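From the shared-data thread, chain only:
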Amino acid sequence: MDLEELKRRLGITDNSQDGVLAERLEDAIDYAKTWCNNPFADGIPSGAKRGITLIVKSMGENSNVASQTLGDMSKTFYQDGTINEAHRYLRPYKKVRFI
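Structure, as tokens:
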């Protein structure tokens, strides 16, 4: 997974955030590999890429906001909602580690 694919998945069309996104992508891939105990030696599968994209998205979220209202539209956020969704995408790729 590279920066251009991440930007497509997030719907980002400009280059103004490339530096930050590249760092977050590297961190998210490392997190996914560690969490899954899986080096993804044969490449990162599509489902895991979706999870990684959500991890990057969660890095930019303000965890102090519970809900937001704009005019007559309201949105409620759930604590750790995005990272929990990312874990659901990554779970099929998680490998058991024997000690």
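The chain has a mean pLDDT of 88.
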